[in-house]
Specification:
The protein contains no helices and 15 strands.
């Protein structure tokens, strides 16, 4: 009956936060238990994704820092949201716009870097929460196309979609 709501700020001003929502409140419509956000990291991009933990129960919530190549992976357990695992990997990103998407098997992450016309594809360890640059792919994409990203169901293909909505 309780859920975590994660938010992120595309302008890099408020960072990534989480709220606890209790669905037993407000006649079953639910309510935020606390009006105060719990900050995961104060200076992040709009990149935010979730990966199921290798234990099959917990999840990782992953976000990306501003003006750096830092990833923050916070484990969400039945007991709460744990302090993030910090990883340094990939391209230093000097903007804030673009998706972060996990592959269906949770082993790879694709990060679109809109302002730099790049996309990083990195390894993710769903046991430890570590993002690594051990098997990296960095792609240069046409201007205005490094925004949306997604993986094919078998995780072998990455798709990117620009702000114009046209696949490339």
């Amino acid at each position: 009956n309780q859920y975590y709501l994660f938010t992120t700020d595309c302008a890099g001003g408020h960072g990534t936060n989480w709220y606890l929502v209790d669905m037993t409140l407000n006649a079953g419509l639910g309510a935020v238990v606390s009006n105060v956000a719990t900050n995961v990291e104060p200076n992040t991009t709009e990149k935010l994704t979730a990966v199921r933990h290798a234990n099959g129960t917990d999840y990782w919530i992953i976000c990306h820092g501003v003006n750096d190549n830092t990833y923050y992976a916070s484990q969400v357990t039945a007991g709460g949201v744990l302090a993030p695992i910090v990883s340094i990997a990939g391209t230093v990103y000097t903007g804030t716009l673009g998706y972060l998407k996990a592959s269906p098997n949770g082993l790879r992450l694709a990060a679109a870097m809109f302002e730099q016309n790049l996309m990083d594809i990195l390894d993710f360890n769903p046991c430890t929460g570590v993002v690594s640059f051990s098997n990296p792919i960095t792609l240069t994409v046409p201007p205005d196309f490094a925004y949306g990203v997604s993986f094919s169901p078998n995780a072998n293909v990455v798709y990117e979609v620009g702000d114009a909505g046209s696949p490339d």
